[in-house]
Design a protein that fits this description.
alpha+beta; Alpha-Beta Plaits; four-stranded antiparallel beta sheet; globular; Nucleoside diphosphate kinase; transferase
């Protein structure tokens, strides 16, 4: 089983989309391993988006992600990283396939509702930024034999 980090960004939280987004992942067969609502501070935001340091949009990205609460979660399942990213859709919602989270709920690239790890290394790093090991559960879904 693979784990991935997924975050509902401040725009998604403010619009009341957390439940709809979790439902999509659970309906697909991914297991919610841990989750929490939190306010990201500037230090955590800079650590999370470290690969974008020095890019022209970095300051706006940090400002946005710290502008309101985020909903952080860890999902688990077969190929969880690629499954979650496919379900999220393209970063630019205008290019996202209909039926994806970004196509259905976002209208602007800078307010695209959701973030998800793009690799095993990113998932491990991001999970470590937001969750202590003891916060991660190992309960298995009862329906995994059927998915």
């Amino acid at each position: 089983m693979e784990r991935t980090y997924v975050m509902v960004k401040p725009d998604g939280v403010a619009r009341g989309l957390i439940g709809k987004i979790i439902t999509r992942f659970e309906d697909k067969g991914l297991n919610l391993v841990s989750a929490k609502l939190l306010q990201m501070d500037e230090a955590l935001a800079k650590a999370h988006y470290q690969e974008h340091v020095g890019k022209p949009f970095f300051d706006d990205l940090v400002s946005f992600i710290t502008s309101g609460p985020i909903f952080a979660m860890v999902l688990e399942g077969d190929e969880a990283i690629s499954v979650a990213r496919k379900m999220m859709g393209e970063t630019n919602p205008l290019e996202a396939t209909p039926g994806t989270i970004r196509a259905d709920f976002a209208v602007h690239m800078n307010r695209n509702v959701i973030h998800g790890s793009d690799s095993e290394a990113s998932a491990k790093r991001e999970i470590g930024l937001f969750f202590k090991p003891e916060e991660l559960t190992s309960a298995k879904r009862a329906d995994w034999n059927w998915i």
